[in-house]
Design goal:
Blueprint (H helix, E strand, L loop, with lengths): L8 H22 L6 H14 L3 E5 L2 H11 L7 E5 L5 H8 L3 E5 L10 H7 L4 E5 L10 H11 L2 E5 L7 E3 L5 E3 L6 E5 L13 E5 L2 H10 L4 E3 L2 E2 L10 H10 L3 H19 L5 E2 L22 E5 L4 H10 L29 H6 L3 E4 L7 H17 L1
Parallel strand pairs: 2-3, 2-4, 4-5, 5-8
Antiparallel strand pairs: 1-9, 6-7, 8-9, 10-11, 12-13, 13-14
Helix pairs in contact: 1-8, 2-8, 3-4, 3-7, 9-12
């Protein structure tokens, strides 16, 4: 059995080496390292894949989220509601812009932002909602958009973990994650479902005016060289990273299916175990089927109940099985984001999840013997307990 990796980027590269190397070499031969043809090619390819009018590449996913907020013209003191159970970048950019973060709880099944908690948090100062599509599936976008429309709020999708996933509406329609709100951001960090070989990100929108403003913001506020029409930043996707992404994009659906296949095998082993709660599929789907793209498993995250999660983490590491706890500390308890406005009783789900969740290896190169070893090790530990 090969060594188990949390994410096997080297194994994935070996299967696409020729096309990636050729694409990178083309950039080097042309010396078009910034805003070269490969950036435009990738942008257009991703627009076609997502079915969105505008993709604006940028330097990383955190920049993407910040620039999306800048493009909307949010002002210092405006309140922005987002999930307490997520990576800090989501709230970090809100604070950096002088906006007021408002953290709310998540749901216990899918770990995404709780719509009822959003409703309770809305005030006259609320200007935007940032749903995070956590671990590979969409938040409840239909309800969130209805709520936003009722209160005249912007919706900024944080799509860093769910590129390629679809949201299924109650009437059967579907849209790609990141194409539903007013604007969306994503990350191309190497471990993402669509990852480059460094940092990278992008903003998506169907709003022509917003897209125009954002295109200026990412390039120092310039639309014409040395003419600075808006306050901007320096956040451009390198041509080499665009070349890698353009080579990998045609395989994204295949990659996501490989993740779904691994998730089904994990589920088959863990289903009905008294100490394990397996991931719930998204948008009302009851199973992770071959043709369903509601969950693309950026992470495979289970909940451990009635057993010592931290002892399990130690045991897996001792057996050479990498794992992760995403996330061990909720944002409302992070030193940088503590606020007297928060009542710990309002974060019951998040405060429970931080002691239960564990993410197991999930990537495109997982093999059956590795999954069998991982699952048998987890079950063996729990059964001894």
């Amino acid at each position: 059995m090969k060594k188990i990796q949390m994410v096997d980027l080297k194994g994935q590269y070996s299967s696409i080496k020729k096309v990636v190397d050729s694409s990178i070499q083309e950039v080097i031969d042309n010396a078009s390292f910034i805003n070269g043809p490969k950036v435009k090619e990738f942008q257009e390819s991703l627009e076609a894949y997502l079915g969105v009018k505008h993709v604006i590449p940028c330097a990383n996913g955190t920049d993407a989220l910040q620039i999306a907020m800048m493009g909307l013209g949010l002002k210092p003191g405006d309140e922005v509601i987002t999930a307490d159970f997520t990576f800090a970048a989501t709230v970090e950019v809100i604070a950096l812009l002088g906006l007021t973060p408002v953290l709310v709880d998540v749901d216990s099944d899918k770990f995404n932002i709780d719509v009822e908690a959003i409703k309770r948090a809305i005030t006259p100062k609320t200007k935007a909602i940032v749903p995070v599509h956590l671990f590979g599936q969409c938040a409840n976008m239909e309800s969130i958009m209805e709520l936003a429309n009722d209160h005249d709020l912007f919706v900024i999708e944080d799509n860093a973990q769910a590129i390629g996933a679809s949201y299924y509406y109650n009437d059967g329609r579907k849209s790609k994650a990141g194409t539903i709100g007013h604007v969306a951001s994503t990350s191309f960090f190497p471990s993402k479902n669509l990852g480059c070989y460094g940092d990278g990100g992008a903003i998506f929108t169907n709003d022509d005016k917003l897209a125009h403003r954002i295109r200026g913001i990412v390039n120092h506020g310039m639309y014409k060289r040395y003419h600075h029409d808006v306050v901007g930043v320096n956040s451009r996707l390198d041509s080499i990273q665009a070349a890698v992404l353009d080579a990998k994009l045609p395989k994204l659906d295949q990659y996501n299916k490989a993740r779904q296949s691994a998730a089904r095998k994990y589920n088959a082993a863990f289903t009905n175990h008294p100490n394990i709660i397996i991931p719930k599929a998204g948008n009302g789907c009851k199973t992770i089927c071959d043709n369903c793209d509601c969950h693309v498993f950026h992470q495979y995250t289970i909940k451990i109940q009635g057993a010592d999660r931290d002892a399990l983490v130690t045991h897996l590491q001792e057996k050479g099985i990498p794992c992760g706890v995403y996330y061990p500390i909720p944002l409302h308890k992070q030193k940088a984001y503590m606020d007297d406005r928060y009542n710990d009783a309002d974060f019951k789900v998040t405060n429970t999840l931080i002691n239960q969740v564990i993410s197991l290896p999930m990537h495109t190169e997982l093999e059956d013997d590795q999954i069998n070893f991982i699952t048998s090790t987890v079950i063996g530990f729990l059964n001894k307990g």
